[in-house]
Structures are given as structure tokens and as C-alpha cells.
Amino acid sequence: MLESYYIEGGVPLRGEYRIKGAKNSALPVMAATVCRGGVYEIYDCPRIGDVFAMEEILKALGAKTRWEKDCIIVDSRGINEFAVPENLMAEMRSSVFLMGSLLARSGEAIIYRPGGCNIGKRPIDIHIDGLEQLGFEVESDDERISCKGTCRGGKITLAYPSVGATENLIMAALAGNGDTIIENCATEPEIADLQGFLRTGGFQVFGAGTDTIFVKGAGRESRNQGPENMMYFILEDRIEAATYMAAVLGTRGRAAFRNIRPEIMREVLGCFERMGARVRTFENTIEIWSPGRLKSPGIVVTQPYPGFPTDCQPQLMTLCSVAKGLTTVREEIFESRFTHKNDLIKMGADIETCGKNAIIKGVETLQGSEVCARDLRGGAALILAGLMAEGTTVINDAFHVQRGYEDLEKGLNSLGGIIETKRKKT
Ligand code: UD1
Predict the structure, then answer these.
(1) CA 311 / ligand 1 centre spacing (Å)
(2) What is the tens place of the pLDDT at every residue in 265-276?
(3) Residue 302 Cβ < 6 Å to ligand 1
(4) Ligand 1 geometric centre to CA of 372 (Å)
(5) Is any ligand 1 atom within 6 A of the Cβ of residue 7?
(6) Is the pTM of this model over 0.85?
(7) 117 counts as catalytic
(8) Is residue 356 domain-shared with residue 334, that is, in the same domain?
(9) Alpha carbon of 165 to ligand 1 centroid (Å)
(10) Are 60 and 193 within one domain?
(11) What is the pLDDT of residues 169-207, one digit of tens each?
(12) Of 117, 185, 320, 354, which residue is the catalytic one?
């Protein structure tokens, strides 16, 4: 019996909401607790499926964990395993980060291929190539990847600015005795957050947020002597913020979001403004509303940061499906990230896809229907559609959404939304 969302649409969302810590920061930071044994208090950690899966992996490796409200405390001193169990690896793609942190800790790591997922093949060749450039010996087949050896460091270059590979290689480079310069890095704010965590823990990493990162090798002598009670606050979730903002705009509401800095969402806010949204920004708060029917933002192309984030593309498609005019959305990051398209069409949207492009002709309204979440952000896009639609929408397979959003329905309901989760016989 899986949970489904039941949504009554048509209510404008109003009020105030505090943005939670970022999934895409929490996962690499949790993995980074392995780099050196210590006790880490990670605040503003979202209570979501992917974080719980990472917690299970850390425990399987020998760490102890406990929660105090939104803080997870990880005691990584007892880690004595360097192989990530295959069954847990399959649960979550981000477990690939453990390759870097296990190498930093023990000089050896075994992981199992995270495999494809609903939004595309998602290979890890850039991770492996980077590890080899660092000097590690990597042996891999279709299932298992084992990595060991000495990190010689030096200058390495990524073939593409992959977020995960950048994060993984920063951690792996800590194992070296020498220094490493990583070029053509991804520049996402979550990478700077990982750097912040590692620096608070005493490592020397510089340049995250630019395309060149310097990592000072820390050797492995002090690997079991990390900080005793290190506190760290996770960066706010810019994708959660964009999702809520899209829900406010789509329902023609007005709301203020706390704990979100405008500078990490410039491209998204600019796109919303092109659609007719009004935005007021403060240091750490953003207020947003829509004075009338939204209009098409024209052509939107997903790109690595600071471009338009692929993780906001499905939510944008929902908004464009009722915005006046014709929108082209081009997905440049993942090859099959239009999984929500057919469900939006079932709800009355007019969308055609051709390769990387989706052409969306704005309709007046969407109609409630029974649809199915097929991946995390596509599921969130359907929740927005349900809030905007006339009548009732049922979205099956809520677990996809719960993997990456903490209590999305409670947050949206606190702004006036009408969403219930119920178990449904499959
Ligand atoms: C991270 C985010 C994810 C987001 C994505 C792009 C986390 C936990 N997840 O994922 O939410 O959608 O960034 O912003 O932070 N690629 C390769 N070979 C590799 C690695 C990546 O070909 O070795 C390709 C991928 O298939 C994809 C593109 O590069 O097409 C971007 O992937 P990447 O930046 O690595 O994304 P993730 O780190 O997986």
C-alpha cells in the first residue's frame, strides 16, 4: 500500500514559510563525515527519504547516528568498513559520494554502480576518470567499482562540470600528501557548502563556487582524530524554494519565504519575473506574487549553475502550461526528464516534445485527474498542477516526492493548500 496525494485545486496560496536545508547539500555533507572520524552535528538537515537512506549506509559502515529535531548527529569514529553494501547502494544514487570520503579515510573504497534512474542513464565515468587522474587504481565492471592506491594529486581536469564528480573528487583529493587542483569544476552553491563543512572540520579546500578548486592533501595519519562536536548548518534548499514559489504563482497567491538568499536563485527569479511575477528581495527573504495571469517566459534552457536548474524544469513546465503564449523548454542536462509530460497532458496541458525540447502552449486551466509521480521533481510538478487545477487531483507513488521534500504537503497546506496523503491499495 503506497501513499498518494489528494489535492483540491484552485486555492491561492498565501502566507509565510521558512525554507529548509538543501537535500543536495545534506547528502554530500553526510558522506563527508566519513573523511575523518569525529562527532558532527548537522543542523537544518531535511528529514527526507534520501537522507534516511544515507543515514542507513553510514550506520552500515560503522557510524552511530541520532536525530534531535532537525539536527542529525553523526559519530563517524567507529567506521571500520570501506565497502558500501550493495542493497543500500541501490536505494540512492548519491551514495556514490562515499567513494571519495572512504578513500580520504581509509585509502580504499568499494561501491556498487548506482545504476540508471527515471530521468536518464546517469553514468559515473567522470568520477572514475577523475579518480584515475588523481592516481588511484580503479577496477570496475558492470556492477562493482573498487578503488585504492595513493593519491598523487597534481592538476586534474573534468571532462564536464559534474556536480557529484566535483564533490567526490574534492573528498578523494584529501587522501593525498600533495596538493590537487581540479579544473572545470561545477560551481553550484552546494559545492561551496561542502567546502564550508570540510574547512570547519580542519581541511583546506579553496575555490568552490568557481571552476577551479584547490585541495590540500591531508594524508591519512590523522584520519581517526576529527572534531569532537563540530556544528554545521546546511545551506538552504533553492530547489524547495523555487517549488513553493511556483505553487504561489500558479495559484495567483502571495507569500514570503524566509531563510533563502536571492543571490542563489537569480536565474529562477528572473524567469518568474519574465512571466509577470512580482518579486521583492531582502537579505534572507523573498516575497513573491502574481498580479494576473502568467505569460510565457519564451525559451528556457537548463544549464549548469548559474544557469536555469534542471531540478526546476518540471515545475516550470507546469507553470507554463497555463501561462499565456508559447514556451520552449530545452533540457540540456538529463536525457529523459519530461516524465511528467503525459500526466500534465492528462490534466489538460498542451505539450509536445521533440528530443530535448518541449513546446508548451498555455491553456486557460488544468483539470483535476488521477496521475502518477514518476520521479522526484516531476512528482513535485504534478503537485503544483493539482493545486492549480479545477477539482480533485490524485497523485500516486508519493514516495518519489518524499525522497527529496520534507513534508511538502504540510508546508503547502500552511499556505492554504488542500492536500492530504492517504494510503491506497495498488
Ligand atoms: C546533482 C544533483 C541533482 C541535479 C544535478 C544537476 C545532488 C545529490 N544531485 O546530481 O539534483 O539534478 O546535480 O544539477 O546534488 N554525467 C556523466 N558522467 C558522470 C557524471 C555526470 O555523463 O560521471 C552527466 C549526467 O548523466 C548528467 C550531467 O552529467 O547528464 C549532470 O550530472 P551531475 O552534474 O553529475 O549531476 P549529479 O551530481 O548526479
Answers:
(1) 11
(2) 999 999 999 999
(3) no
(4) 24
(5) no
(6) yes
(7) yes
(8) yes
(9) 8
(10) yes
(11) 999 999 988 999 999 999 999 999 999 999 999 999 999
(12) 117
Count of CB atoms within 10 A of residue 233's CB? 17
Measuring from atom 21 of ligand 1, which residue has the nearest CA? 162
Residues 289 and 252 in one domain: yes
Looking from the CA of residue 334, the nearest atom of ligand 1 is 30
Is 163's C-beta closer than 6 angstroms to any atom of ligand 1?
yes
Task: Report the number of distinct structural domains present in the chain.
Answer: 2
Taking 70 as the pLDDT cut, the residues of the chain under it are 1, 115-117, 119-120, 220-222, 425-426
Q: How far is the CA of 419 from the centre of ligand 1 (A)?
A: 31
d(CA 284, CA 292): 26
Q: Look at ligand 1, atom 8, and give the residue with the nearest C-alpha.
A: 24
> Is the CB of 164 inside a 6 Å radius of any atom of ligand 1?
yes
- Where is the domain boundary, 233, 256, 287? 233
Range of the domain at 71: 23-233
Measured in whole angstroms, the distance separating CA 206 from the mean position of its chain's CA atoms is 22
